[in-house]
């Protein structure tokens, strides 16, 4: 489930559109004050956020429902 009313802050898992493509990643603020979208799967790279990207945060993930 995703809540659009919750602020996307450091450590939250978000639904984001980057240059029109959707992704689910953890929003992380680095020590140098830069931001990244970090995947939970270490096989995938971080996405460094910078002004050249078109970024829209659609909401914050509040829970996950799995099929049985």
What does this structure look like?
With 68 residues, the chain is an all-beta fold. Helix content is 0%, strand content 44%. The protein has a 6-stranded antiparallel beta sheet, with no helix packed on it. The chain starts with a strand and ends in a 7-residue tail after the last strand. The mean pLDDT is 95.
**Total number of strands:** 6
Strand content: 35-45%
What is the strand arrangement across the widest sheet?
A: 1-6-2-3-4-5
The largest sheet is: 6 strands, antiparallel
Going by helix content, strand content and strand pairing, the class is: mainly beta
The radius of gyration over CA amounts to 12 Å
Shape assignment = globular
Q: Helical residue percent?
A: under 10%
Q: Mean pLDDT, nearest integer?
A: 95
Q: How many DSSP H or I helices?
A: 0
- N to C succession of SSEs: EEEEEE
Distance between the termini: 17 Å
Poorly predicted regions: none
Sum this structure up briefly.
By secondary structure, the protein is mainly β. It is built from no helices and six strands.
Question: What does the secondary structure layout of this molecule look like, with pairings?
Answer:
Elements: E1 2-3, E2 13-18, E3 21-29, E4 35-38, E5 47-48, E6 55-61
Antiparallel strand pairs: 1-6, 2-3, 2-6, 3-4, 4-5
């Amino acid at each position: 489930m995703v809540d659009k009313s919750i602020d996307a802050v450091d450590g939250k898992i978000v639904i984001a559109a980057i240059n029109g493509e959707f992704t689910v990643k953890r929003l992380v603020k680095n020590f140098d004050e830069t931001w990244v979208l970090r995947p939970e799967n270490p096989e995938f790279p971080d996405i460094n956020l910078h002004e050249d990207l078109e970024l829209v945060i659609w909401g914050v993930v509040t829970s996950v429902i799995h099929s049985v």
